[in-house]
Amino acid sequence: MKTYSGIKAMALVASIILMIPISINWFSFLKHNFYNDSNAPVTPLESTDYSPSCSFILISDSSAAVSRCHSSSENISIPQKAQVKGYECTITIIGEQAFRDRSDLKNIEIPNSVESIEISAFENCSNLKNIEIPDGVTYIGGSAFSGCSSLETIKIPSNVKSIEYGTFYDCSNLTNIDIPDGVESIGNSAFYNCTRLTSIKIPATVKNIEAFAICECINLTNIEIPENVTNIGESAFAGCRNLDVVVDNSKDNVVVGEDAFRGCKSVRYTK
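and the corresponding structure tokens:
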């Protein structure tokens, strides 16, 4: 005679066996929809030298992201359209780490169709000198240009609402940058160690300057922090030894983190 516990155990085993095909089908669905098919037709990036190999990820039937470039070319032009899994797709995203560590890359052309540049997309492209970000870009991910030590100038599109963490970390040849109106936050270490930066304009829309945001920018001489800024993070401007800071507010209306202005030449509140 079978005990109740024995019957219960058999029922559990039977349930697991019945669920296996469903689990396999669900996994297959996820793999089909979110992972690139190695047999998919892929159009390589166009290059001024030759056509290097590159992988794309299908986002929808009409759009795709650059997944990874394996080119050793100095000059690359990303196509506006590519054939991915049988679909003619518009390239709308430069994917996470797509060009990371391509120290040989000097110049890149991004098509106007691109709307997003993801995390670490161009991180450690140490010889990248010229890049024009299309006006249609609305998001630039954290560390996107971190370690691009040859980058001299860059224009941030007007639709970008936040400078993310470490976006321009250690861009030691960046000389000036205009942050567009509409940006509300400058992230942690966004411009850390941009040692040749001499000018940076913070728009009136900015509310938050996070920790280490503009730290160790030793050639920055003056900066005005607008009235809407109510939070300045820890060591936000630390080490900017030639910097005169003007805060368009009173001390009572701004939360200032520890060592926010450590080593700065002067700090003045206007109210």
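(Above: one complete record from the training split.) Residues 1-35 form one domain.
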